[in-house]
Amino acid sequence: MNPSRSSSLSQWFEPEPVVEPEPVVEPEPVVEPEPVVEPEPVVEPEPVIEPEPVVEPEPVIEPEPEEEPLEPVVPAVAQEQERPTKEGFFARLKRSLLKTKQNLGSGFMGLFRGKKIDDDLFDELEEQLLIADVGVDTTRKIITSLTQHASRKQLKDAEALYGKLKEEMSEILAKVDRPLDVSGKTPYVILMVGVNGVGKTTTIGKLARQFQAEGKSVMLAAGDTFRAAAVEQLQVWGERNRIPVVAQHTGADSASVIFDAVQAAKARGIDVLIADTAGRLQNKSHLMEELKKIVRVMKKLDDQAPHEVMLTLDASTGQNAVSQAKLFNEAVGLTGITLTKLDGTAKGGVIFAIADQFGIPIRYIGVGEGIEDLRPFKADDFIEALFARED
To answer: Which contacts of 124-128 are long-range, i.e. CB under 8 A and separated by 24 or more positions?
Structure first.
């Protein structure tokens, strides 16, 4: 009896698990579809993506079209700024050459005054020329010429040599006194070369302003694609002065950028195109090959381009500037030189070494930070400022 009762009891207990359908409550998690509401917020971020296209106003190309109508205004302003500075330039030139004059020019007076002409005098003069970075070869030429002159004229008074020395140094610079003429070509293409840090990009900006002041339309090509700062600097110059700048992303092919710039300048009838280039001297052979490639690419559009290959040199680097001139001249054939940072250096004598060794026209000299402090080189003015006696 008991077993049957227990079996019946067990039958009663077994159905209890039938209550297991209670886990049917599990479908409650079906309420989880509520997270389906989550997609709604997902939709919200989508409109947030919409502002991204707003970034599309990246076309910085817009300033280029603005340039044409505004160009005539800038030259007028630039010309007004130039007028008051012209008269004072000689005084500024004298001031900027003060350190160089300690060894050259008027600095010679103390050396010659009251001395007799002998080997000691010429030794002292030679030392002074070398200290001023006139260079060994050029110094020897000057000393030899003075020695022969003194012997021929049977001079005994050293002061009589002072005038001859000034004449000798003037003749060296007279050979390279040939101003840049950008007329006759549209566009006149100037390829700017030089190592980093010599003031090349700044010189480009100053030249652009000066050409504008003469009423010429100007375009810039940001060919130094290895330095983002160089591209940005040119773009800032362009925006400030309403000058179009052709540029690509950092690391782009420099020759490609300049090719595009020449095409654009031709299409728009631009008077002067100034192209910047890289100046990484760490890998000389690569840099020189890149410059040669740029020249080849230019000639596909204009067989006479570039019309000027201008090297920018920093006067304060002394004889290093001579080495750079040799390097770039051998690679691309220089047609002009701009010598910057003559102010504040005692090594300004390097201008004589460069003029004597290469005979390449010195187009401009930089004697300060201002736009008006980059001036066309005039040998007579330079010599007079150098030899001018201080009151």
So the answer is: 125/165, 128/103, 128/104
Q: Residues forming the annotated binding site?
A: 194-201, 276-280, 340-343
143 vs 147: CA distance, rounded Å: 6
Please give the annotated binding residues for GTP, written as ranges: 194-201, 276-280, 340-343
The H-assigned helical ranges of 56-115 are: 63-70, 73-86, 89-96, 98-101, 109-112
Q: Which residues contact 52 (CB under 8 A, 6 or more apart)?
A: none
pLDDT tens for each residue of 176-225: 999 999 998 999 999 999 999 999 999 999 999 999 999 999 999 999 99
Nearest to 174 by CA among 343, 325, 362, 310: 362
Q: Are 366 and 377 in contact (CB under 8 A)?
A: no
Q: Which pair of tokens denotes residue 194?
A: 């030089």
Q: Which CATH architecture has domain 1-391?
A: 3-Layer(aba) Sandwich (3.40)
Sign of CA dihedral 212, 316, 130, 334: negative
The helix/strand/coil state of 85 is helix
| pTM given for the model | 0.76
pLDDT in tens, 114-129: 888 899 999 999 999 9
Q: Map out the domains of the chain as residue ranges.
A: 1-391
Q: Are strands 374-376 and 308-314 parallel, antiparallel or unpaired?
A: unpaired
Burial of 330 per CB tally in 10 Å (0-12, 13-18, 19+): exposed
Helix (H, G, I), strand (E, B) or coil at 63: helix
